[in-house]
Amino acid sequence: MRKELIILLVLLSASLAIGCAGQKGEAPNTTVTPATPGAAGSEVITVSAAASLTEAFTNIKYQFEKENPGTNVNLNFASSGNLRRQIEGGAPVDVFASADEAQMNMLANESLIVNNSRKDFAQNSLVLIVPENSALNITGVKDLADPEVKRLGVGNPDTVPVGNYTRTALTEAGLWSQLENKMVFAEDVKQVLTYVERGEVDAGFVYTSDAKTAEPGTVRIITTVPVSIPVKYPIAVISSSEHKEESQKFIDFVTGKEGQDILKKYGFVSQS
């Protein structure tokens, strides 16, 4: 009986140790789509991509793997700023797809990307959205100054490109400082969308492509918000990648006809 009790305690301790190890490696505000299981010996590349690319790149991943059976793709989604910091910290990333040029420029300045692999592959636009059942009379950004508008969903402008575009647009409209006390900062564009879908904010700023992925009947697009900086998406191979050939194939797929058709389907403007 004593021997059985000792064995039970050893198994319980091992189970707890495994559970703790699993929790230790989790990264906040990051969505990971693992590589599709493939044949033994298949190469696996990790693609870190802006949160706004979630649906499009998930589709691209499966099409790419189908046409390149020797390569599997592990997708890592988060805000471009957080992904850039992960790469700077030595995360094992092969390809980076950013929602703005600024984050990619920072990596280029540190020689962390293969410069001749860098390409702009898509464009997007900034839109103002409200909950579908909103009773507020919001027809444009100037209406956000109305005292009845209490909370605005905005990406954190220091790490989230959509937040930086929002800050630029509202500053150019002379509204940023006036509206700043109403802002609820989000860690990526998908979180802004969720705030609006749930009615937790009165309005929010997202990309057109994200508005198209909202749950049916939850949000309304009020207007496209003009921004002096084009919303462009660059992609590049990371310098430390051990799978540069496979990574370049993925970029070629994204920038090729099939990848561009998928991006268009999800509301992005093609660069081809």
UniProtKB/TrEMBL annotation:
SUPFAM superfamilies, A to Z: Periplasmic binding protein-like II
InterPro entries noted in UniProt: ModA, ModA/WtpA, YvgL-like_PBP2
Gene3D superfamilies per record: Periplasmic binding protein-like II
UniProt-listed GO biological process terms: molybdate ion transport
Keywords: Metal-binding, Molybdenum, Signal
GO molecular function: metal ion binding; molybdate ion binding
PANTHER family documented for this protein: MOLYBDATE-BINDING PERIPLASMIC PROTEIN, SULFATE-BINDING PROTEIN
Protein name: Molybdenum ABC transporter, periplasmic molybdenum-binding protein ModA
Annotated source species: Methanosarcina barkeri str. Wiesmoor
